[in-house]
């Protein structure tokens, strides 16, 4: 960027507001000054910026944690910019080693195609499909050929590649690193060249790859993109990042009743992080709501508003309303006036162990059998995942029609 760009395109109030929206909830925006200048240029010229998000279709479904970056895309889309939803059908053949201590086994072309078919359908629940450009990186990666791949590889050094944390750790530990793994960040970076992106989004674990795009754009004589990383969403247990393997997730294809009840199960403190990263309410609205809670409003009312918003996004307003009614009906009608009250520790605690410690199941294996049979409820919602872990808080546990316990779970 030149100094002239600063003087030609002033940072107006509208640009400052767009910058504030860009920065909401982010981990890093690099370089922030360049992004402000791009925003100013876009406002002055009327030419929207090109904003890229690449996702490898490694699984058929996505959960709320994946939508954190999609929400940021939607915010920028609503500012009038062109968002590009890039499906990494070519790079998935390699397998991204980011954040791993070993290479991820590549999927077959058939698995990739099957997963890709559902990815955008689910992402369209957040993005506006009419204003979203859908691309596949096989469009240009397939065309590179051996000569193009060698020319691309010549634009980065092995020494710089080994600065990436996971490669460095594996090398020092004596773990193997296949040569093809070096191609992944190069190809992801080349996507930015092919798309001439102005901004690329990703999780914090993608920072190296995102900066690679910036470097390669400069190598190919393009204006370098800016990089925006979003934090990883903490899951239902309030401790670890949302993950299916940890059982602390909400899948965006889950039924409305389950989704609504799961949002209500998060802690009061975690709720505000979720508001920042998942809600489309303005920061001013969230701050006002938080102040109301500090002034005495029941935090559960704020949590209900969040559950209603998220359930509406992935289902409908009518489904959210029905889910709320169903939750209140089950939480009121099915619980006797007097039930055992217990204080337990060890949060986050697996649901099987919690049922055993609460005296509602003789063993964890029997608790799992009851879960598989649909006979376990937490706060009125049926538990369908034996991997569920509950964070600190108060819960009403129910097994079958007659066994209840109100548990205060501490860390």
Automatic annotation (TrEMBL):
Keywords: Aminoacyl-tRNA synthetase, ATP-binding, Cytoplasm, Ligase, Nucleotide-binding, Protein biosynthesis, RNA-binding
Residues given in the record as ATP binding sites: 244
Entry's localization field: Cytoplasm
Motif placement: 'HIGH' region: 57-66
Catalytic activity: tRNA(Tyr) + L-tyrosine + ATP = L-tyrosyl-tRNA(Tyr) + AMP + diphosphate + H(+)
Residue window of motif 'KMSKS' region: 241-245
EC number from the UniProt entry: 6.1.1.1
Subunit-level organization: Homodimer.
Domain of life of the organism encoding this protein: Bacteria
Name by which UniProt lists this protein: Tyrosine--tRNA ligase
This protein's record includes keyword Ligase: yes
Gene label: tyrS
């Amino acid at each position: 960027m030149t100094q002239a760009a600063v003087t030609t395109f002033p940072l107006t109030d509208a640009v400052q507001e767009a910058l504030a929206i860009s920065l909401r909830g982010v981990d890093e925006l690099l370089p922030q000054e360049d992004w402000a200048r791009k925003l100013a240029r876009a406002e002055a010229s009327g030419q929207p910026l090109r904003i890229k998000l690449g996702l490898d279709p490694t699984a058929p479904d996505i959960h709320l944690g994946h939508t954190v970056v999609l929400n940021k895309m939607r915010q920028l889309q609503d500012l009038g910019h062109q968002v590009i939803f890039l499906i990494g059908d070519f790079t998935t053949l390699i397998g991204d080693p980011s954040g791993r201590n070993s290479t991820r086994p590549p999927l077959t072309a058939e698995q990739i195609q099957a997963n890709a078919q559902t990815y955008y359908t689910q992402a369209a629940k957040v993005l506006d499909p009419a204003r979203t450009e859908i691309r596949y990186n096989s469009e240009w990666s397939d065309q590179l050929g051996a000569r193009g791949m060698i020319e691309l590889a010549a634009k980065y050094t092995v020494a710089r590649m080994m600065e990436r944390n996971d490669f460095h750790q594996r090398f020092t530990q004596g773990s193997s690193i296949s040569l093809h793994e070096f191609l992944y960040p190069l190809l992801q970076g080349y996507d930015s060249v092919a798309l001439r992106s102005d901004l690329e989004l990703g999780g914090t674990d993608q920072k190296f790859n995102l900066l690679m795009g910036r470097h390669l754009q400069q190598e190919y004589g393009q204006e370098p993109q800016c990089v925006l990383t979003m934090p990883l969403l903490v899951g239902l247990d309030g401790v670890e990042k949302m993950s299916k393997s940890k059982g602390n997730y909400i899948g965006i294809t889950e039924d409305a009743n389950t989704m609504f009840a799961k949002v209500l199960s998060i802690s009061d403190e975690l709720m505000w992080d979720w508001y920042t990263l998942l809600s489309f309410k303005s920061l001013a609205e969230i701050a006002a709501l938080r102040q109301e809670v500090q002034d005495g409003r029941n935090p559960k009312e704020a949590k209900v508003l969040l559950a209603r918003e998220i359930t509406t996004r992935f289902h409908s307003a009518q489904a959210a309303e029905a889910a709320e009614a169903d939750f209140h009906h089950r939480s009121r009608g099915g619980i006797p006036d007097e039930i055992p009250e217990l204080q337990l520790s060890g949060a986050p605690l697996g649901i099987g162990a919690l049922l055993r410690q609460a005296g509602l199941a003789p063993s964890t294996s029997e608790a799992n059998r009851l879960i598989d049979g649909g006979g376990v409820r937490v706060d009125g919602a049926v538990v369908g995942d034996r991997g569920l872990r509950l964070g600190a808080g108060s819960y009403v546990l129910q097994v079958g029609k007659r066994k209840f316990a109100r548990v205060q779970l501490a860390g």
